[in-house]
Design brief:
heterodimer; A: mainly beta; twelve-stranded mixed sheet; four-stranded mixed sheet; B: 296 residues; alpha+beta; Alpha-Beta Plaits; 2 domains; 16-stranded mixed sheet; two-stranded antiparallel ribbon; 7 helices; 18 strands
Chain lengths: 254, 296
Amino acid sequence: MSDAVTLTLATQPTQTLVADCIAADRFAALGAQEIAALPVVHGGRPATLGAFFEVRGERASVVRITGDCRRVEAIGTGMAGGELVIDGSVGRDVGLAMSGGRIDVRGNAGANTGGAPAGAARGMTGGEIIVRGSVGDDAGARMRRGLLVVTGDGGQGTGKGMIAGTVVVFGKAGPGAGRFLKRGSIVALGEVERPATFGYACTYRPPHVALLLRYLRSRCRVEVAEGQISGRYERYSGDLAELGKGELLRWVGA
Amino acid sequence: MKINDVTIEDTFAEAFTMRVARLVITGRTLGWAREAAVKLTGFATSVIGCKCEAGVERELPDSETPDGRPGVSVLFLTMDKASLPEQLIVRVGQTVLTCPTTACFDGLPDAPDRLPVGKALRVFGDGFQASKVIGGKRYWRIPVMEGEFLIEETFGMLKGVGGGNFLILARDADAALAAAEAAVVAMTGAPGVILPFPGGVVRSGSKVGSKRYTNMIATTNDAFDPTLRAITPSQLPEGVNSVLEIVLDGIDGPSIEAAMRAGIRAACRPGVQTITAGNYGGKLGPHHFHLRKILG
């Protein structure tokens, strides 16, 4: 048993590498050889994780991934616990349908981060994803529970069709953010385009946002300004074309 | 044993096992947090008549509260498991929920026994309430006219200790009061301890039952009443004309012992003749705080 399992990208994939076998809670029960033998899909063909990643450590629920993983997709799919740190940018579908634990991306993440598998009604149902960069389209789409934090910009349709949970975007939220939201919160600390089906409620200091941002600053080492913690937010209820119990909270200053 | 010429009697305070919860109430200012805490802990001096005992443990700076605002830590005790959530739900709902700017957090996060206080109060939101999970804890956001009231879903419950005490036997009422005030100052802010009575002091210590009225569960402690010295089996030494009691409740025995040590030492001042403690012969309460052992 090690403190952590480290995966180093040794062979750069020439095509898309679907590595949905990488999840911190699964690695807690696997030896190094078993981890290396896990199946991946490279350009539509079956392969093993060990053909691309050098594996160090075993039987740990803390996993660290290093190397340029922009072509690696679906890391952390269905993850239920543990901690997964990706040192750099990563491809689409990070934390797809995850239910617990934390994924920390120290770079950009692709489309559908924390989202739902194709055709599925629910995206992530728990856990936390911190992206210290920007995300692609549909990040947090159909989220049922959990937390997605994007320190950069969100793509188109961030938090689209959320059922519950929280998405925090520090940069520009992208067009269509929160469209078809049933419940849940989108906290926009930067620019955001409000869907027409959201109704203005009030401008206030939401106590849970202060608590959440303090948590992100102290526990997740996310840079948060004091004015964002204690500041005022415009609350828009929506999507009124859906259940309407969700909210878009737009920071308007201290 | 004597401290500053005050006799410390060779006796012990007898205390009971109670259930305890710790609430952290925050507000926009310390003043508002304090307002809520004072109302919450009002009429909570003794389980005999109030069904619970509560008090402010200490004031908390911004750096010690979950939401970074000034706050007040409150301890709440009842005799049994079932009545603690009942009391908390009613009292928090009427005093903290109603108080401007406040939020309410659990102060015993590691306690395995959980009381669903926020979960019960959420229905005040009439279906418009929403929950958030932050750092693994669930909070309820209850819409109110001011904005939102935030409360943690569950609060921890531990076995605590209620009824730690000592009695100040003094030459006159002024000396007894001055000694009691000094003791309270010394014990204020002691971690894990509250003094549930007004100003931390009791003038009407009681005995179990009654000599005359069968329906009374507690009546005046006539053995320590100076006005009854001539007509009851008095326990007052000669020269004592006034007695005040300090009652302490706490998270655990060591917390109460530490507070009693500080309080008794502070109470040993001119005009005080003896420090003693109330007990029932050791037959009722499992916690015995021996004065000389604590001060030794």
